[in-house]
Amino acid sequence: MSTAATITTDAALLQLIWLASPALPVGGFSYSEGLEAAVDAGLVSNEDTAALWLEDQLHTSLARSDLAVVAQAVTAWRAQDMARIAQLDAWVLQTRETSELRAQTVQMGRSLVEWLKSVHPEQALRATQPLTYPVAFALAASSGGAAARDILLCFAFGWSENMAQAALKSVPLGQSSGQRILQRLAAAIPGAVDHALGLDDDSRQAFSPMLAILSAQHETQYSRLFRS
Fold it and tell me: By CB count within 10 A, which of 45, 81, 124, 178 is most buried?
């Protein structure tokens, strides 16, 4: 491998690590995506039930919807297909079943574009309309030359870190439990990513009725740490 190729590969990898960092100022830490409501309902009460809940969410929700959108949006951004970007962005909004979940993807997408303006202003100029988080993430990752599979691994691991931290605070659990949950999610991510990569518009879906019910209940939950 030439020196130039090595530098390009390293730069793409570091860009993905940066995007997966919980320190990225997009506000992901403030959302539990229904997990807090699951704890309140008694569906999640310890390390094992938290890990099982999040693994189910990874496979039945994230892999079937947001991960597939990220993959398809990366291709669209690289092809400068803005009609396709608008289509994918509209699909994300249409499939957010509660006001909290919709507000989350809108806020995180807006924050990620604002971050792009500060570090990659030329890239941020491509966002000519407000973007949902999966589509904004695809924009941020699309210019680095990374493979789509690596981008999805990054997206899923960033989600897993945020959700493991949400479990620590809402159950609550200790740091060791959080690390074991993250270990289980990390082992499950490659399979979820491969499933997402095989989806097209007809097979992509967002159907998690229990998650939607809990999210709706969270909107009026008496005591809350999280915004979703």
Answer: 178
| 21 within domain boundaries | no
Structure pTM? 0.94
Domain that holds residue 64: 31-218
Residue at token pair 């990620």: 112
Quick check: 187 and 54 in contact, CB under 8 A? no
Q: Which residue has the higher pLDDT, 36 or 144?
A: 36
| CATH assignment of the domain containing 124 | 1.10.4190.10
Per the rule left: phi > 0, alpha: psi between -120 and 50, beta: everything else, 42 is left
Instruction: Determine contact, residues 41/211, Cβ cutoff 8 Å.
Output: no
Rounded Cα distance, 126 and 113, in Å: 10
Region of poorest pLDDT, from 54-63, 106-115, 116-125: 116-125
Contact 29, 168 (CB under 8 A): no
Per-position DSSP letters for 27-38, written without gaps between them: -GGG--TTHHHH
User: For residue 4, what pLDDT is reported?
Assistant: 38
Query: Model confidence over 64-104: pLDDT tens digits?
Result: 999 999 999 999 999 999 999 999 999 999 999 999 999 99
Distance separating alpha carbons of residues 186 and 196, to the nearest angstrom: 16
Token couple for 183: 């270990």
DSSP symbol at 172: T
Number of domains in the chain: 1
Residues 6+ apart with CB under 8 A from 87: none
